[in-house]
Amino acid sequence: MEPLAAKIIYFVGYWLANFVIRAPYIKSHQRVPIRSKLKDRVDHALFLAVGVGGFLIPLLYVFTPLLSFADYSLPLWVGVTATVLLLAGDWLFWRAHKDLGTNWSPTLEIRDQHRLVTQGIYAHIRHPMYSSIWLLVLAQAMILPNYLAGFTGLIPFALLYFLRVGKEEQMMLAEFGAEYEQYLQRTGRLLPKF
Asked: What is the pTM (predicted TM-score) of this model?
């Protein structure tokens, strides 16, 4: 895949996820009062690192030649596979937001009138938003033929995921008790349970 095509595909996929899919939920999220919050400095730092690695550095690569020293070439099939992952990630990102509605939060928070969402994609996967972001950072690594811009989203997101998902599940157990325990038994964390 040509570098310009890869840059355009990445930018469009990223723009869809953050400005078309997520932006309306950010506005509605801010209107619902928070009842409890589990946010520490580590979570905040990792969230910031994901933004820098998954947004700023790739955009620097897309719009400037500053990172061209770290370029390499990829076969076309890798770019095509990455495009499929990007589209799947964007779709799953949209579906997770749509099914969560006002229950979505970018941080570890319980909102007023928060309910356990178990329909739609959540009937099969407990954390489809994390699944979608895994797809998006893998697509970033595969579609951007640059050692820096391609991989800077993957490592911070992996750290965020592994340090955060356990806390999130404990928070949900504390909030929803037996209902969440039953939900744990019938769903997979990132993929449907077979």
From this structure: 0.91
